[in-house]
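step=predict obj=Stage 0 sporulation protein A homolog n=237
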Amino acid sequence: MSNEKILIVDDEKEMCLLVKSFLDNEQFQTYTAYDATSALELLESVEPDLILLDIMLPDISGVDLCLQIRNKVAAPILFMSCKSEEIDKIIALSVGGDDYITKPFNSGELIARIKAHLRRERRARQAEAERNPVYECRGLEVDETARTVQLDGQPVNVTTKEFDILLTLIRSPKRVFSMDQLFELVWKEESLAGDSRTIMVYISNIRKKIEKEDQKFIYNIRGAGYKFHDEVTVRSR
């Protein structure tokens, strides 16, 4: 089931419900509004991933509503309209709309356009996360770009090497790193006898700063090394 949320704004209730049925069949989470006031209220609580917006609304025009929406969210906006003139399309796109489809439309074309915009948004978010990743796991946040650590919203003071070890582990939560591998990745030099003890001390210090009795992040895999908790997600800064 898709987690993506779509807000449908159209004063024609039958059209709203028809479009909603198309999207429900595709397993999207759908929300409907029949005027601009209701749409703005829903915008605050729903935070949609995409908005379908009729250009003609009873209280204000879809164009004016689009300008207000653009001050709040960056979600793609796909205009739906009976107007097919080129100037209407130009105006709609110039105020922040991302696409324009003329009524009556084919349900297949509508779904295809929606999915194309959502794919583009997912790629953009992924690219942003790769540029400025923040790794999250059960209240722990490791910001790679800012080189900061937070636990339950509170900053954690770590040394440069502690951060580098933590970052190495949380980047690859399913991988088991030997102590020699961790030393070589962090210190950028070949591991020598006794360096494994250095890693053990650093890991112990990191654990004291981020772990509680009932919350473990770093696991000691007997005879193999260390790995991070599996439940890691990545978002952009």
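step=describe
The first helix runs from residue 13 to 25.
step=end
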